[in-house]
Amino acid sequence: MALIIDGRKISQQIRDEVRDQVAAYKAQGKEITLAVVQVGEDSASTVYVRNKQKACEYTGIRSIKIALPASITQEDLLAEVDRLNRDEAVNGILVQLPLPKGLDANAVIRAIDPLKDVDGFHPQSVGALSIGLPGFVSCTPAGIIQLLKRSGIEIEGKECVIVGRSNIVGKPMAMLMLRENATVTVCHTRTRDLKEVTRRADILIAAVGRAKMFTADYIREGAVVIDCGMDRDENGKLCGDVDFSDCEPRCAAITPVPGGVGPMTVAMLMQNCLDSVRIQAR
Question: What is the CATH number of the domain that holds 232?
Fold first, then answer.
């Protein structure tokens, strides 16, 4: 029977650790502040922002929400980011994505001070990761590393197959697995014989955004499967990219959806906010 990797439990461990360290900073007179910018009133974004605010409240991190209208101009949005860059009381800046049509998300990400880039999306953060320098790491891939390590799953020397090449998950995930001395293959929509490649994996990371795409015939017996998907099945029920019930009997370990990777993303955002104090002190 597979080990079900409990992302809720592990994320709680990280939040508790962050809370203790935030309290230690407060005892020294140092408050950590996260500014979250939401443009427009997208319902999913509102939920995500609320979850981040709740995590801040739990860990003791001060949270500032800046709500801007969907009609805001690119120039005015960049001016708001610049204001937060210059605010010495703000340690981390997060602009909730996606942005409304007509706004250039890449330009906004590039405008964030890399020393406050707690999402880990800035090109400087990505570049630092790629050449092994310290810096902020994208929260979902960083969370996956913690899921594996805290579940006692060895990474070094293992063959890891990542399906998905997004800037937010797939690419940074590959670099993090390389940093942990795994042998890494990245697959995508143009990969030939995908099942043949994924069946080689000791660790399979699915990040394609297609409900239940990965069935048991994609999985090698005894593999570890990490499901980054957040999809809806034909009945509207929340599910991942992996058909859990079909794949679980073949796995040594597997993450569920919900309750696997998802909770780790916000936990690692809190960790990045904590790390911002050290990064900004250099």
Answer: 3.40.50.720
CA distance 142 to 172: 9
Query: Is 119 marked active-site?
Result: yes
Shared domain check, 146 and 110: no
Q: What confidence tens digit (pLDDT) does each residue in 148-178 have?
A: 999 999 999 999 999 999 999 999 999 999 9
CA-based nearest residue to 115, from 128, 132, 105, 106: 128
- Report if residue 275 sits inside a domain: no
**Are 112 and 144 part of one and the same domain?**
no
Domain residues for the domain of 229 are 139-262
Q: Is the model's pLDDT at 282 over the cut of 80? A: no
96 flagged as catalytic: yes
Kindly indicate the confidence band of residue 138, based on its pLDDT and cuts at 50, 70 and 90.
Answer: very high
Q: Which of 52, 158, 171, 212 is catalytic?
A: 52
Q: What CA–CA distance (Å, rounded) separates 78 from 90?
A: 16
Answering whether pTM is above 0.90, one says yes
